[in-house]
Amino acid sequence: MAMYAEVQQESNEDRVIKHAPLVKRIAYHLMGRLPSSVQVDDLIQAGMIGLLEASRQYDPSHGASFETYAGIRIRGSMLDEMRKNDWAPRSVYRKARMLAEAVRKIENDTGRDARDHEVAESLGITVDSYHRLLQDSRGHSVFSYDDTRNSDRSMLEELANDDPGPFEGVQTSIFKKSLAEEINGLPERERLVLVMYYDEELNLREIGEVLGVTESRISQIHSQAIIRLQARMEKWLKEDE
Questions:
Q1: Which residues contact residue 6 at a Cβ distance below 8 angstroms, ignoring those fewer than 6 apart?
Q2: Per-residue b/e over 212-231, b at no fewer than 16 CB within 10 Å?
Q3: Contact, 152 vs 68, CB < 8 A?
Q4: Among 30, 40, 179, 213, which is 20 to 30 Å from 84 by CA?
Q5: From CA 71, how far away is CA 68, in angstroms rounded?
Q6: Residues 37-70: pLDDT tens digits?
Q7: What is the largest distance, in Å, between two alpha-carbon atoms of the chain?
Q8: In whole angstroms, what is the distance from residue 105 CA to residue 30 CA?
Q9: Which residue from 194, 201, 202 is spatially nearest to 222, judged by alpha carbons?
Q10: Exposed, middle or buried: residue 23 (CB in 10 Å: 0-12, 13-18, 19+)?
Q11: How confident is the model over 76-84, as a mean pLDDT?
């Protein structure tokens, strides 16, 4: 028994060393969506704790690869650290909720996608001011979108996988189906930005080059997509609260 424990410990240590680059990859990818006040070293430190916990608790009999399981724990540990330190000011959340409520009302009233000028008009501001609000709400995006994802797999892979698994208690197939439908129902450009950002892991500058617009405009489109998803997934978000 002692020999087995020693071998298991060595195996855990090997896993941690092998997958340490995964922590940095996830940390730097999250950094692209966070306010400048967030330090990458803090994310990496939190991620390493998640990796260590994953190494101790991983059970291969559940059928998931260690990298998949570790990605879940690493990302979750980073998000927990951000919540604990409250790096996103309360004003960020207020602005995001205000925008989501305006989008929700317009889409409920019209039965179609809310347009920039309509949201701006409903808030009594100019379109430029609305775009600035989208930029200000960017720090909220990591919570509003990543909290709906519980693995480091591609968004489309995750949504397409309806087979029962060890993490179905965290994210139900009904929720995944609803989220997939709402993502597919986004305006084409918003959907494309999400796919390139979360699945292809392109940064905002690279996406801008693909679509022929500025990095700032891609940031606005990304934030707008997140706000629209938040508005359309109101039922699920309220249940989480």
A1: none
A2: eeeeebbbbbbbbbbbbbbb
A3: yes
A4: 179
A5: 5
A6: 678 888 899 999 999 999 988 888 877 788 888 9
A7: 70
A8: 30
A9: 194
A10: buried
A11: 78
